[in-house]
Amino acid sequence: MSLMQWLDQLDKNCFTFIHAGFANPLLDKLMLQLREPLTWIPLYVCILVWILRRDRKHAIKFILITIVCFAFIDFTTSSILKPLFNRSRPCFDESLQPVIRNIIGCGGRLSFPSNHAANHFGLAAFWYWSVLLITGKRWRWLWFWAFIICFAQVYVGKHYPLDVLAGGVYGMIIGSLAAKIFENWTGLVIKPSRQQFAH
Question: With a threshold of 0.85, does the pTM exceed it?
Answer without folding.
Answer: yes
